Prior knowledge:
- The protein has about 325 residues and is α+β, with helices and mostly antiparallel strands.
- It has two domains: about 5-205, Hypothetical protein, domain 2 (Endonuclease III, domain 1); about 220-319, Nucleoside Triphosphate Pyrophosphohydrolase (Alpha-Beta Complex), CATH 3.90.79.10.
- The protein has helices at about 5-15, 30-40, 45-55, 60-65, 70-75, 85-95, 100-105, 110-120, 130-140, 150-165, 170-180, 305-319; strands spanning about 220-230, 230-235, 245-250, 260-265, 270-280, 290-295.
- Strands 1, 2, 3, 4, 5 and 6 form a six-stranded mixed sheet that branches.
- β4 and β5 form a beta hairpin.
- α2 crosses α3 and α2 (about 30-40) packs antiparallel against α6.
- The N and C termini lie far apart (about 65 Å).
- The mean pLDDT is about 95.
- The site of iron/sulfur cluster has 14 residues, from α9.
Amino acid sequence: MNPAPFRERLAAWFDANARDLPWRRTRDPYAILVSEMMLQQTQVATVIDYYLRWMERFPTAAALANADVSEVLHAWQGLGYYSRARNLHAAAKLGLAGNAEALERLPGVGSYTAAAVATFAFDESAPVLDANIIRVLARLFDYSAPVDTAAGRAFLRARALELLPAKNAGRHNAALMELGALVCVPRKPRCALCPVRPFCAAREPGKLPLKKPRRAILRVEQNCVYARRGDEILLEQQTGRRWRGLWCLPALPNPAGAPLAELKYPITHHIVTLRVHRRAAPAEIQPGQLWVPKSRAGEFPMPSPHRKALARLLELTDS
Ligand code: SF4
């Protein structure tokens, strides 16, 4: 493919069709890192509000670095995958360096995020391979092998590099991403509206990109306690990797009897059934546990499934 006319068409389409997303109005690497961390695993429509609230609360890397981890987790509450918030907090303390290689050394910043920040903030000519760009490239070059292998990534990276301009790389990468989000969409690509259709080799675009077979979904159970002392609820601060620093209903190692409430939630390749059992208030509480007035429970950062379970329990017992 001849990259120059491809880039011209793509750029003209982007100028006319780009969405006005708040993180596109800035070149601040901190703000762009915040948006990129939030956009991992979360839809654009959900991220917009979180991003605006976050930037109001922690407008600079220094403001975030000086915040308490509990405040940071609370601001992230509802986005899930809390390691992203902890990593962002740690990265803010270390400071944001000026190229993709240095950014990749920050905690939780992989090659994709580092390239995205470097290209959008510093206009670095770095190939950015997010899910949208991977799909667009796999179709443009009719790549019919799995994209999530070392060979697949190397192929796409090489194609992305061939297409990259020396100048305005950030805008070019944003345009490719936007094409994937608005036109070259996963199930039914809108090829009739596509500005780069003359360059596209895809024979059956709806079937691309291919991926390695998925891991089987595992079903697991999680049992917790709902204990009350008048208007107080017993909560437990987590120390495990996934929810470290967050507050949950305390774990119940040996559940017996019917639960008071039950809900299911997905996490990576698991479906978790959360069962909450009513228990009498213990005479003594364990380290890490706390009696929290129910009116103040909202001030404690909690993972969504536990927050939803608690709301349901309060409705069942207090209404
Ligand atoms: S022509 Fe269709 S498959 Fe090819 S890039 Fe455009 S939308 Fe995607």
